[in-house]
Each structure stands twice: as structure tokens, then as C-alpha cells.
Amino acid sequence: NLKGFMRHALSGDEVAKKVWRVTTPCDRRNVNVYLIDIGDGFVLFDAGVKATADSVRQIFEQWHFPLSEIKTIVVSHSHHDHIGALAELAEASGATVIAHKLAEAWMLDHERQFLERFGRYKKDLPVPKSVRAAFFEQLGRPWLAEHWLDRLPVSLPCPRKVQLLHTPGHSPDCISLWLPDDRVLLSGDAFAGAGVARHLPYYTDLEKYRKTLSVIAEINPQLLLTAHFAPISGETIPQAIQQSSRFTELLDEFVLHALRNADAGLQLHFLTEMVCARFGRILSPDAATTIFAHLQSEEQKK
């Protein structure tokens, strides 16, 4: 039939077999969301920032598909740059939204997310008004999931084999999408590399992040599709995972060395400044979150 023919003849940024990437600018970086042909429609992996809705619409218009072809939207995690277009796309398509149960609070309450992510260090690392303005400009209306997952992995009920995995560390609610027949892993921010746009890699739990890197290595994908990086393929994937693991070790070594050689206890903001200066990264509340994860990890070892 014509629709079946068109699905095999799609043009655009096809990064894997029947997997397309939609990229939207966000501050100093890009946000990638992915459309996956599942045989009876599409899965949208992540919704991106608010502007992503227009990008997805334009692509579907180019393909002569209605938005109702999007059957499911999988939210990789609840950060603002991954849920900004969720309400608009979910409402327009009628798609079923799936997210981790731990994503519910921040998906429902954007003000709470801003305060808990950026406001926790405001006494030491003031957040510019421009950051707050950009945060809320990139968000649409709050939108909740139809299915909240608390036990993973799970498989989606569709012709193509699609499995959702729990890959925490970057945040507690991180979900990755695995296409086993094609050995393609869509990781969202579960893989943070050496950081995006001159920032430190962002994670809230160091040990869980390390475990997720090990899980990705064990899965051994042939293609790794992330939220902010270009596709990583073949033999470069183990190298990228090793480099990411090594960078967390270097951060840990630096933090511990600073703590042991300080005459008195180091305040978090000062330690974060030291780390960012040493590794040439931008000083930010997200950087403080990563350093705090190292401090928590050290505390748990005692």
C-alpha cells in the first residue's frame, strides 16, 4: 500500500534502520529526539524543548503523515529539555505517554523542578534571570503519562521489538530504549560522555551512573543514540564508554585530593569552582550537582 511504500522511502536524518533523528537547538547545545517506525506507527523517544513540536510537525507534513501516526511517546527522563514539547505533541497526536514513576513530580510541577535543580545552591551559585527565563520558555504545559513504570525492563506491544530499560545515574528516572534486532540503543542522557557544550557530565548518583555505563557496555550496542551527541557507532562505543568512565575517575581523584589537602572543610561552591577551573568546564548549578554526587559517594563508603 502507499503508506507502507512511503515508510520505506522516507527521507531525512535517518540514523539507523527506520530510526530518524530530529534535532532542535537549546541554549549552547542541541537536543535530539528520535522517531522509530514500529511497524504500525511511530514511537517518539523524548519530546525535546517546546520548539521541537514544530520540527516534528514539519517532518510529518513532509512525509504526508498525520501526527496520529505517533502511537507512543517515551519520556527518557523528566528534565525540562526532554519534556518541553510533550503536552503539544501528545495532545495533537493522541499518543500514549510512557515515563518512569520517578519522573511524575517534575513532569507535573515545572516550578518544583526549577527550584530543586537550580535553586538548591542559589546562595553560593546564583542563577541568572536569563537561565530561569530560558528554562520556562523551553517548556510547554505540564503533561502526565498514561503509564508510569516502576519495574523495568518492559517490552512495548508492537510489531517491532522494542524494550525499555532503567538506566539511572544522570537522574533517578532515566529510561533507555533498546532495539535488540538492530542492536541500537537510544540512551537519552543516561550516557553523558565528558559533558555537553563545555559542561561537566551531569549525574545525580555517581555509583548508579557508573553502573549504567557498565550496563551499556554489557548490552554491546552497534549504535548508541544520545540526547545531545552525534551518533556513536561500532568500535568507538567501547572507547566512548571507557573515556566517560575514566573522566568520572579523574573527577573523583581530584575531589578526594582536594578534600584531603584542605586545611578545613571545603564548601561545595568552592570545590565546584576548583573542579571546573581544572577541567575547563563552565561553572553552574549542574556542575555542583555532579560534584555533590562525588561527595555523597565518598560519604557512603565510610
Label this structure with key terms.
alpha/beta, 302 residues, 11 helices, six-stranded mixed sheet
Briefly note the structural class of the backbone.
Answer: alpha/beta
- Secondary-structure element series: HEEEEHEHHEHHHEEEEEHEEHHH
The major β-sheet equals: 7 strands, mixed
pLDDT < 50 runs, ≥5 residues: 1-11
Helix content: 40-55%
Instruction: Tell me the Rg in angstroms.
Output: 20 Å
Strand content: 15-25%
- Lateral strand order in the biggest sheet: 1-2-3-4-5-6-7
Quaternary status of these chains?
single chain
What's the pLDDT, averaged over the residues?
92
**How many helix segments?**
11
Tertiary shape: globular
Beta strand count: 13
Report how far the terminal alpha carbons are from each other: 64 Å
Helix and strand arrangement:
Layout: H1 2-8, E1 14-16, E2 19-26, E3 29-37, E4 42-45, H2 52-63, E5 70-74, H3 80-83, H4 86-93, E6 96-100, H5 104-108, H6 110-118, H7 129-137, E7 147-149, E8 154-155, E9 163-166, E10 175-179, E11 184-188, H8 206-219, E12 223-226, E13 232-233, H9 236-261, H10 268-279, H11 285-301
Parallel strand pairs: 4-5, 5-6, 6-7, 11-12
Antiparallel strand pairs: 1-2, 2-3, 3-4, 8-9, 9-10, 10-11, 12-13
Helix pairs in contact: 8-9, 9-11, 10-11
What can be said about this structure in brief?
With 302 residues, the protein is α/β, with parallel strands linked by helices. Helices cover 41% and strands 20% of the residues. The chain has helices at 2-8, 52-63, 80-83, 86-93, 104-108, 110-118, 129-137, 206-219, 236-261, 268-279, 285-301; strands at residues 14-16, 19-26, 29-37, 42-45, 70-74, 96-100, 147-149, 154-155, 163-166, 175-179, 184-188, 223-226, 232-233.
